[in-house]
């Protein structure tokens, strides 16, 4: 099929490469301000841009016969006014610096018709071994969970990196700990894997750590996370 991409960010870059490798005819049109027009004979148009701009761009294709898709986890299918519309959400973290094996990327699908779901399922199968139908409300919940477990966790790694840099300790010393933290939740629930001073409610250690952080915002993050961990642990013990 001829697939036109509107977008030039990380998702558009990696997904377009995957479809190109699957022998589809891929046309990159640029971002919201397009460098190239969307071909009139495109079978599918994939809008992969900032969430807030999807609805505005989608209105340009209200009379199109193509299947119009967006790739957002948090935006409803309803923002696309076309008669043929859908969502192709890849739940993965993407960076320009790293290649991703799309065959292992879960794809979450939604369309406005059964025929287009069959079409989108075939497309998804061309690039990934994992496809799941999911409505907009379910996908929004999934995206929330993804932000918590990926984006927020990565930010905590950024803070850890800063703390170590201040004392000239290399970040790679944390890698075995990080690897085991992730590895063990493949076999036990995260609530059972939780360790640390907040579980024990070691107030002296917690207070000492908070004092060591210079940024007041970072102090609040440590304090709130510790309180949340402790509350979660107590609730789990009472079940």
What does this structure look like?
The chain has 239 residues and is an alpha/beta fold. It folds into 2 domains: 2-134, NAD(P)-binding Rossmann-like Domain (Rossmann fold), CATH 3.40.50.720; 140-238, ProC-like, C-terminal domain (N-(1-d-carboxylethyl)-l-norvaline Dehydrogenase, domain 2, Orthogonal Bundle). The protein is 47% helix and 13% strand. It contains 9 helices and 7 strands. The protein has a 7-stranded mixed β-sheet with strand order 2-1-3-4-5-6-7. α3 (114-127) links the parallel β6 and β7 (131-133). It starts with a strand and ends with a helix. The model has no long low-confidence stretch (mean pLDDT 96).
Concise summary:
This protein is of the alpha/beta class. It has helices at residues 10-21, 54-58, 114-127, 136-166, 175-184, 190-193, 197-200, 203-212, 216-238; strands at 2-6, 25-28, 44-47, 67-70, 85-90, 107-111, 131-133. The chain folds into 2 domains: 2-134, 3-Layer(aba) Sandwich (Rossmann fold), CATH 3.40.50; 140-238, N-(1-d-carboxylethyl)-l-norvaline Dehydrogenase, domain 2.
Radius of gyration, taken over Cα atoms and rounded to an integer in Å? 22 Å
How many angstroms separate the termini?
A: 53 Å
Task: Trace the largest sheet across and list its strands.
Answer: 2-1-3-4-5-6-7
Stretches where pLDDT falls below 50 for ≥5 residues? Answer: none
Structural class by helix and strand composition: alpha/beta
**Number of strand elements:** 7
Strand content: 5-15%
Main beta sheet: 7 strands, mixed
Q: What is the number of helices?
A: 9
